[in-house]
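S1.2 Input.
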Amino acid sequence: MRKGELPRYQARPYVCGAIGPFDPARLDVLARSGPAVRLVHRAPDAALLTSTPIRPYGTSTGDGGEQDSGGSGPAAFAWGGRLPVSAAPGTGGGTLAGTGARPAWLSVAETFETPGLIDEPDEVLLHTGAFGLDDVYYLADGDAIYFAGLIEPLLALARTPYEVNWDAWAAILKLTYPLLEDTPYRQVKRLPGASALIWSRTDRRVRVDRRAPRWVREEPFDRGVTGGDLVELLHEALKPYDRVLVPVSGGYDSRLLASIAVAAKMDVESWTTSPDDGLDNDIDFARYITRELGLPHRIIPQYPEKYPEEALWAARRLEYLTSHHAWYSPFAREVHAAGRPVVDGLAGGPLMKNFLITADAVGAGTGATRREALLAALATGEPHMPVLGDAALAWMDDRVRAAFTRATSMLHGHRSELPLSVLHTRTARGIARSPVNLVGPEATPVFPFLHPEFFDAALSVPVTRKEGGRFYREILRAANPRVATLPSTNGALPHRRVPLRSNGPVAREWNHRMLRKAATVPGLMSPQMLEVVAQGPDALASFGSWNSRFWLRGLVLFGAWLGDYEDVLGDLTPPWSGSIG
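S1.3 Output.
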């Protein structure tokens, strides 16, 4: 993003601010380093600035303009797709920032999946949504905490040269997304889901409040939920909308949501693009589905010669946090001009079809072996040749394993440990970046599968009922039996092949330039990979298999990041350098 355009915040606001004894001059630097903002709340030890006016909830005061409470009364703000318009200060567990079993901030976080700031006489609280889908990044500077919805503005406050966070890059390369609080920079951290930073005006210090959200506290039991029950709940989840765009990919999730939208007689458009998987069954199958549903259907084309531009646009918009979603770039830019909320099937895989939950994980005899099996399924598989150096790979394996154990620790022994572990790591940190950060903030993403009633009901269905897609097919039949029988990308696929744009001549030349940047880090690449780089762009043609191209994308992402930030990065000696033979 350093050399790219800032997102245009139209569907949700860009937010930044500070808690604790902040420096007004430093806050001004933060405010000037991102999208244009205005002050909406200021009090001793608290400031909130937003790109569009937001009202405090639960109060009759405030019109979205500047509010100076002087710290004398409670004020609560939230920003996101669904807002707590009727919540009242002091409800849901004592004070807004109370320390009971379920403080009010957590109720807002898990019901509306929104971050927020709560200012009370004794303390100021900054919190995330329960999954943390809308990012809250922060930088500690002395006792003050500066926060923003983007990483880049906070870098204006960071010490230079920036210190590389190798733990973040280990997870991005191994899993395609970081874990815990990690971003590519040591000083800038991401506040995890269901967490709060609380500045005490009496103790003059910050503490962290990390909570288990509702679906972790209240372990689900098999309630005998049927496919028809879930279809009814999806109708409820989509009731607030009357005009939507439903991307149809040919899989289960999108056809289900399109079927619900049509049955509800909504004004629906459907678009499809290629996922650059070498098959393009999505386009063929989407035509069958939209024809059956009678939907206007548009194909968003993609062009091999534009792949470098698309990949770099996605990388910068996502602030280099995941190697996913380059293929989605032209689609997202078209969505920005559509003027419709986009119905997205986020979380459908782990909730309803056991996606990435292997038989080894389900049948594991101990918690440790269950987590090891799940981590193996989430990690990028073996490439056709060694890609990382031995010392780098060993170091990354150890760091990612430890981070994954910590990131899922609250789920250990939970009845739904497996799907929730996928949802709290891969879904929230990697897959959600597409609808939240590429579609949004210019357009509104809608996540029906995360609607509280639907989520709880789907989670209550045992994983054994979901094996092989059996339960999901029951849901599809209840929604639209004719659409349920159409070919799906979730089943056996035809062998029609199309060229990969990400491995075409133009892409190979760009990928090669990025790999040359990445190769400057000692020991990162294996001798075999360094030899491929030395042979030139055409040698990358061998990276056409699923696993190999994911490894390639991760290294290319790292190289692109180095290219954008090389003049402000510090020592690039990696932590495994002492182990290089």
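S1.4 Remarks. The mean pLDDT is 92.
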